[in-house]
């Protein structure tokens, strides 16, 4: 019997065919006369005398439903590229225009949905879609409403026993007068009977509002540090290299609802934690925006971040946050202060930037999670792979034992003299002339190490001290007498 030619039809309207909705293609056949006909009794390609039945391989369709700025970001692309390496996974991104303008009945079909809220995203439509299609959900959509309200976030963290800074909520929208009492003093506020001495933090209850203020006591000069989201317009500044700005205003805001909390004395860094499921957390530190407001950037203009190893207690916090908010992919902020770790914000869905290791881990965990859930349903021949966090077991003549992979040691001898430093602010023209002499304006700094250079600094110090003794120095130089004597003593040693 002659081989029957086949015709492969794609991009058909699935809604008008009585086939399983997850089929990606459909086959029809042509007879020797060239007339098209369906193969009787054949739901799959085949049922021919000279070819065996070979059903098409089912792939799990993983859809990304988010605003284009998020779904088209570099981290998302990196992770989706790695997800596509799974034989049984295919990814699709819902176009922003479809999300915003089309009814959910016309949204593409999927088996697994990764959807998350950001500014302008219609969260209620995403919920309607999941109710209609019932895909496997990576990040719970209902809880994403809670993440938009810091009051609910703090309440959830408290309920789970997660450490928070001491706080009180001033709810000016409440009809209960006991929830909107504010008494302000020069160096403190009393919120519903709870006193906060400066420095304290004032956060809007809306998690979408990033205008967080830190108020300082008069002993530290007063005023406030005003934090804001980087690279956005602010009434004070519009510079991508800043994350906060100082204001002389010391009075708290009089309109709106806020959370007031103790300012936590950290080492000048914030720890950003990113979970991928309850058993994985990546952490890195950045310079705190409360420090001086200037963002540290590398040669490529990216914010400098430092790798952080989480303690066992912090890993447990990450697990609790992930489970409590039902967000598989979740970011939150930790403050390390007074020997403890405090959660000060939960951001919901967020990715690490510029980390190939994180992209690899995230894609592997998500891919395995999705197939573990859906492979049995779709009869996909997928076996659960060896997990990274499984203990490495190897057979030996004495039985099975755990394998020692490596030993890492950090060794430093202790026979070192601590560095002796002194800092001195100088404004005298002689110092500026020395700065210019050694091309300080070219690089923004100058390092003087040679004996001749240090001698020049010493000569300036001696000369200024002589002017002070002779009553010829200006008042600002006279105020520096103690520092100049210290500088002279150091250089004469």
From TrEMBL:
Recorded catalytic activity of this chain's protein: 1D-myo-inositol hexakisphosphate + ATP = 1-diphospho-1D-myo-inositol 2,3,4,5,6-pentakisphosphate + ADP; 5-diphospho-1D-myo-inositol 1,2,3,4,6-pentakisphosphate + ATP + H(+) = 1,5-bis(diphospho)-1D-myo-inositol 2,3,4,6-tetrakisphosphate + ADP
Keyword Kinase: yes
Residues covered by the VIP1 N-terminal domain: 60-149
GO BP annotations, alphabetical order: inositol metabolic process; inositol phosphate biosynthetic process
Biased composition (Basic and acidic residues): 471-486
GO molecular function terms listed in the Swiss-Prot or TrEMBL record: 5-diphosphoinositol pentakisphosphate 1-kinase activity; ATP binding; inositol hexakisphosphate kinase activity; phosphatase activity
UniProtKB keywords: ATP-binding, Cytoplasm, Kinase, Nucleotide-binding, Transferase
Family: Belongs to the histidine acid phosphatase family. VIP1 subfamily.
General function of this protein: Bifunctional inositol kinase that acts in concert with the IP6K kinases to synthesize the diphosphate group-containing inositol pyrophosphates diphosphoinositol pentakisphosphate, PP-InsP5, and bis-diphosphoinositol tetrakisphosphate, (PP)2-InsP4. PP-InsP5 and (PP)2-InsP4, also respectively called InsP7 and InsP8, may regulate a variety of cellular processes, including apoptosis, vesicle trafficking, cytoskeletal dynamics, and exocytosis. Phosphorylates inositol hexakisphosphate (InsP6) at position 1 to produce PP-InsP5 which is in turn phosphorylated by IP6Ks to produce (PP)2-InsP4.
Name assigned to this protein: Inositol hexakisphosphate and diphosphoinositol-pentakisphosphate kinase
